[in-house]
Amino acid sequence: MLDSHQPRETQRVALVIQYLGTHFHGWQRQKHHRSVQEEIETAIAKILGHHVTLHGAGRTDSGVHAAAQVAHFDATGLIPPHKWASVLNSYLPKDILIKASAGVDNRWHARFSAAYRRYRYTIYTEDWPNLFVTPFSWHYYYAPLDETLMQAALEPLLGKHHLAAFHRAGSKRSHSWVEVQAVECDRSGPFIHIEIQANGFLYGMVRLLVGMLVQVGSGQRTLANFTELWKEQRREEVKHAAPSQGLCLLRVGYPDFPFTPDVWYDTMPKLVFSH
Questions:
Q1: What is the mean pLDDT of the chain?
Q2: E-strand spans in the chain?
Q3: Could you give the CA distance from residue 118 to residue 265 in angstroms, rounded to a whole number?
Q4: Nearest-CA neighbor of 108 among 2, 252, 8?
Q5: Coil, strand, or helix at residue 163?
Q6: Among 63, 94, 185, 237, which residue is least crowded by beta carbons within 10 Å?
Q7: Out of 3, 61, 262, 266, which one is annotated catalytic?
Q8: Per-residue DSSP letters for 214-225?
């Protein structure tokens, strides 16, 4: 803990954070459940001797992972901003890692300064389960999946759309407009990787979207029907969300970011099998 008699200067510290979501009830602090935000805030409080609020770029759901979540907090004390990563890691559990820390301008905000968020969803399609990929993928073996159909279903989503069909109940967000900036669906052996980038995401959006995409890929739903469903906001037809463990917040992008690309841009390897 810092000496309370030391001179104090307020500084805004940005963090790049990785976490395994398996044993977390999501990012956001909440009563009676373990959260990433609370774990990091508790560690900061142990160091500073008082509570601070950690502001995240996005709120991942229960069980969802993050390869490069971004957050910031305001601190007083003598720890240089770039040292906070190593200091915090000595206080944090093994399923959270601070990749890097840096000082930012006091007007910079992890959530409101972000230009985009990008998620990756991984599906494993072999007939037999595999313990080493289970924590990071959805084992979908019920029917063959055509990734080209799934890519074709994604492409009309590019642009700004009202995506209420993929908006879970319980959100405090007042609207369902989303600007989708990039979509990608590709296969590597038994793995299908789906990536979606947008200016922001609705509560539960990616998991609901992937749940419907597999219906397209398996031939249960046509491309035209899928597109009509979200354009006509037929939320009542979206009944199944993909499991949380296949989803990862891949990265968050900013016009002005103090971290080099190797820290945040591509820090989650794709699951592949080489032969």
A1: 94
A2: 10-19, 55-56, 65-76, 96-104, 116-124, 138-139, 159-162, 177-188, 191-198, 247-253
A3: 10
A4: 252
A5: coil
A6: 94
A7: 61
A8: HHHHTTSS-HHH
Q: What is the C-alpha to C-alpha distance for residues 6 and 23, in angstroms, rounded to an integer?
A: 38
Q: Which tokens sit at 208? A: 């609901």
Concatenated DSSP letters for 55-123?
Answer: EES--PPTT-EEEEEEEEEEEESS--GGGHHHHHHTTS-TTEEEEEEEEE-TT--TTTT--EEEEEEEE
For tokens 């959805």, the residue is: 138
Report residue 152 as tokens: 């074709």
Query: Any catalytic annotation for residue 61?
Result: yes
- DSSP H or E stretch at residue 227: helix 223-231
Six-digit token string for 41: 């805030």
CA distances from 120 to 55, 123, 185 (A): 22, 10, 10
Whole-structure pTM over 0.70, yes or no? yes
